[in-house]
Write a structure and sequence with these properties.
The protein is an alpha/beta fold. It has a domain of about 250 residues: TIM Barrel (Alpha-Beta Barrel), CATH 3.20.20. It has 13 helices and 14 strands. The strands form 3 sheets. Strands 4, 5, 6, 7, 8, 9, 10, 11 and 12 form a 9-stranded mixed beta sheet that branches. Strands 1-2-3 form a 3-stranded antiparallel beta sheet. It has a two-stranded antiparallel sheet with strand order 13-14. It is globular and about 65 Å long.
């Protein structure tokens, strides 16, 4: 039985992977640079927000399976990284795999002189609508923030539905969720999409009441109506609702999506958590088979956004793309997504959408000098951790 892959072709000899380099950068991201023998380099973004160190260690553990291999053999490498370990899946391993996969696609596109979406079958659209965040973790000021996004040429926004929520909370909390949605809708009118993220904060006993309270204001979708692990609740929750249900940022593979897809309307895989471009494209095709729309999750950096866009442009069921442009968590870090990019025009928002990237690979040129500077500045600083919320009685609440 063969234990080695097929011998190298002439095209592959310059694509042998020689090195990995990781950069922990603010506000809470991890960038990966993979360099090849022939001088090409690809970039990816392997990270779990709040668990960056764990993902870094996983990438370092996986690199021995990639160094010495031709970077263009993406599928074989993906299968080795996924199936070559007896224990597989989950946020850390799949995010490590995701960043490696993104960087390999970047190299392959550059080697062939084409954008990645060309290698995925070619573009099915010339532009993809995008949305921006409003309101923060404990949402407030959503009307003014939504209007500001519209002035920035966004035609869709997303906000958290609530702050902390008890397992069974008061009618007043439901009223506040509805009032917030009403304020955003009245601020932007009927032609702007308003997504509402439950963030897994709202438990089974409150979820239906909260969704029904939002329905008069036509949410674009209701995201994570229950926390991951409760996919068995989706059939009963979805029955009779008019608001589209969305889920997927904490599902990490096509196998995780199997139980959810029959009961949701919008699939939201995260390209830096769900196995990279390779797996996200497969999840998109699975979603299409269930007549489910695709809206990749991406409150991350420029590499994750660029990789997501290539899947969007090659996937017929993609309808909108999340971005972290101007997101609330950048303020304290003093650095923004575009600060790491030498060609920021690739992420320009015009009439609510981003257009096809034209450069080879991921199409985004990383300013390596800025990456190295910010990685040095962040060295020794405490890595970002998500807040630990507690209810009034002292028990832990979902963030």
């Amino acid at each position: 039985m063969p234990t080695e892959p097929a011998p190298l072709g002439s095209f592959e000899k310059d694509l042998i992977v020689e090195s990995f380099e990781l950069f922990a950068v603010p506000p809470r991201w991890l960038f990966l640079k993979i360099a090849t023998r022939g001088g090409l380099a690809g970039w990816g973004e392997p990270v779990v927000e709040g668990r960056r160190g764990a993902v870094r260690a996983a990438v370092e553990e996986l690199e021995e399976y990639v160094i010495g291999r031709p970077a263009n053999r993406i599928e074989d490498i993906w299968q080795v990284l996924y199936r070559g370990g007896f224990y597989r899946g989950g946020p850390v391993l799949m995010s490590a795999l995701a960043g490696i996969d993104q960087a390999l696609w970047d190299i392959k596109g550059k080697a062939l002189g084409v954008p990645v979406y060309e290698l995925l079958g070619g573009a099915v659209r010339g532009r993809i609508p995008v949305y921006g965040w409003i309101g923060g973790d404990s949402p407030d000021g959503v009307a003014e923030a939504a209007q500001r996004r519209v002035r920035q040429e966004f035609r869709a926004v997303k906000m958290n539905a609530s702050g902390r929520m008890g397992w069974i909370d008061s009618p007043q909390r439901i009223a506040e969720i509805a009032e917030r949605m009403q304020a955003a809708r009245e601020a932007v009118g009927p032609d702007v999409g308003v997504g509402v993220d439950f963030h897994g904060r709202i438990h089974r006993g409150m979820a239906r009441r909260a969704i029904e309270a939002l329905e008069p204001y036509a949410p674009m979708f209701v995201e994570e109506p229950v926390a991951p692990g409760h996919e068995d609740l989706l059939p009963g929750l979805a029955t009779g609702l008019r608001a589209p249900l969305a889920m997927g940022e904490r599902l990490y593979s096509r196998w995780d999506f199997k139980k959810a897809l029959p009961h949701i309307d919008v699939a939201q895989p995260d390209i830096s958590h769900a196995g990279g471009i390779s797996e996200t494209r497969r999840i998109a095709a699975m979603a299409e088979a269930w007549d489910v729309a695709l809206a990749p999750h991406c409150p991350l950096g420029p590499l994750a956004l660029a990789a997501s866009l290539h899947v969007d442009f090659a996937s017929p069921n993609a309808f909108i793309q999340e971005t972290s442009l101007g997101m609330h968590y950048h303020d304290q870090a003093g650095v923004e997504l575009l600060d790491y990019v030498a060609n920021p025009e690739v992420f320009a928002v015009q009439e609510g959408a981003m257009t096809l990237p034209e450069k080879p690979g991921l199409g985004v040129e990383i300013d390596e000098a800025v990456v190295r500077k910010e990685a040095g500045r962040a060295s020794g600083q405490r890595a970002w951790k998500n807040p630990v919320w507690r209810l009034d009685d002292g028990s832990v609440a979902e963030w």
